[in-house]
Write a structure and sequence with these properties.
This protein has about 350 residues and is mostly helical. It contains 15 helices and no strands.
Length: about 350
């Protein structure tokens, strides 16, 4: 059976996790400083977590604040960076819309869905646009099957414009994951197969490792734990062989282990879930870059919350902060959820 708070042991031991965030101004690079306060992307990641916990008011506040911060620096951003953030917004706002629809607040759901659609249509980079369209399709599938099919087709057509092989692996496997969520199992295997085929052709070890790690994460998010485990084992063997590893590999591995653990916890495999959640936390804590570490802790927090361990999730979020007025402690999260329920 799935884990519940009635279980004796938590899903993740966070007793030794430092709540103090990395010092403001520490970027991990000599002579370089970071601006005080959370970056827009981190606020977007926080919004994902808050959406997972059902605190939609906080999630909307976080993603709106992220948009405001981004607007202040838009002139200095590249089109690809802006598209990456807008894709994240699409994913968050479609999930917010889905939850409002489940609460039968249909007008509010439609407002957020329309905003997500507008953002998706504004994205120019094929790599980001394809993933945004696929995310929209997955959310629309429950209530607007025909429209969802159109968005999936647009996502697939846009994916054909992606030229960089690693990005092709990521996009195709993301579409496959979303098709799983829309119950298109046969198509899912086709797209995962295409992504895996491209990954095997990559010549650079660094590219191959990143492609496999993201593919493992998407496989795990789609519930295919066997394939995810195989990919993670291949990565470990290749790293142990002494190949050069890119700095971001640890983040992708941590997220893959976290997604794998969530899938296992959902299916009642609690002991293996604990092991893989611990592996994810170990990878996250080993990351040298503070922002990368924070992003990974937030992803792990989202999965831990989805698995039912709200207390551990809240502590992970607190360790990734600071978040100003956003609830991060277990008590603050509970209060926020109660306030949301009263509205």
């Amino acid at each position: 059976m799935p884990w519940t708070s009635a279980n004796v042991a938590p899903l993740l031991d966070v007793s030794k996790l430092a709540l103090a965030p990395p010092a403001a101004g520490a970027s991990g690079v000599a002579g370089e400083t970071r601006p005080a306060g959370p970056a827009p992307q981190l606020l977007a990641d926080l919004a994902r977590y808050q959406t997972e916990t059902g605190d939609l008011t906080a999630a909307i506040r976080s993603v709106d604040r992220a948009s405001e911060l981004l607007g202040a620096k838009r002139g200095s951003m590249s089109d690809s960076d802006l598209d990456a953030f807008n894709r994240a917004q699409v994913e968050i706002r479609t999930d917010i819309a889905r939850q409002f629809r489940q609460r039968q607040e249909l007008a509010t759901a439609q407002t957020h869905l329309l905003r997500a659609t507008h953002l998706a249509n504004s994205i120019k980079t094929p790599y980001e646009r394809s993933q945004a369209l696929s995310s929209l399709a997955r959310t629309l599938y429950d209530g607007q099957t025909s429209t969802a099919r159109d968005y999936f087709n647009r996502a697939i057509e846009t994916a054909q414009l992606v030229k960089e092989p690693v990005e092709q692996v990521i996009v195709l496997s993301a579409i496959a994951r979303d098709l799983t969520g829309a119950s298109h199992i046969e198509q899912t295997q086709d797209w995962f197969g295409q992504a895996a085929s491209i990954a095997t052709t990559l010549q650079k070890p660094e590219d191959r490792l990143i492609a496999r790690a993201v593919l493992a994460k998407h496989r795990a998010e789609a519930g295919d734990t066997a394939a995810a485990k195989t990919l993670l084992s291949e990565i470990i063997r290749e790293v142990e062989s002494g190949v050069k590893t890119p700095p971001e590999l640890g983040q992708h591995q941590a997220e893959a282990f976290s997604a794998l653990a969530l899938s296992q916890a959902t299916h009642g495999e609690i002991d293996t879930a604990r092991t893989d959640f611990a592996a994810a936390l170990h990878q996250a804590q080993a990351l040298a870059d503070p922002e990368m570490r924070a992003e990974t802790l937030l992803y792990l927090a989202q999965d831990i919350a989805a698995a039912g361990d709200q207390e551990a999730a809240a502590k992970l979020v607190a360790a990734a902060g600071p978040w100003d007025d956003s609830p991060t402690t277990p008590e603050a999260v509970k209060k926020s959820l109660l306030d949301e329920a009263k509205r």
